[in-house]
Amino acid sequence: MSQENQFNPIFEQDLGKFQNKDNKNIIIVALVMAVFLIMAGVITYNSYVTHSKTPPSPTGLIGALRPGNSDYDVYIKQIVISNQEQFYSTNALGGLQITAKGRVQNLGNRMIKGLEVRLVAYDMDYKPLAERLFAVVPNFKSEILANGTLPITISMGKAPDEDLVREIKLEVTGLIF
Fold first, then answer.
1. What is the CATH number of domain 70-176?
2. Residue percentage of the chain with pLDDT more than 70
3. DSSP state of 144
């Protein structure tokens, strides 16, 4: 036999066998991938789960007179929301929203320093499907003078389907003089 055809151990290759250095690289890559998958899972979970520990949003105008208060019950007859228009639209994320416009008229002789309005969508049985409270005064304007008017526009996200809604209203729910 010639020497050219004999096996030469100098040129031997370790194909298919892992060396110690290759094992460390595989373990590092696997750990990094596992950490990324765990982080992605936590982020996804947090984006879909509601957190009960979150404090509830404020329930409206603090210190306002409400229905049942004698001053409120007398003066509310002198506050009118006229020219009410409501319409559905699609927000930037593709969800339905209701936008309501109107004109608050203070027909009384007292200046209003705080006014809370509720936008509510009623179902066929006049039960509220969705609602939003908004402090019109002082957010839009600092006050409404006696015999004054204020145009308002309020939007409500996560609106119910139009087919389920019988009526949409703007209602005064709180006053501060």
1. 2.60.40.10
2. 82
3. B
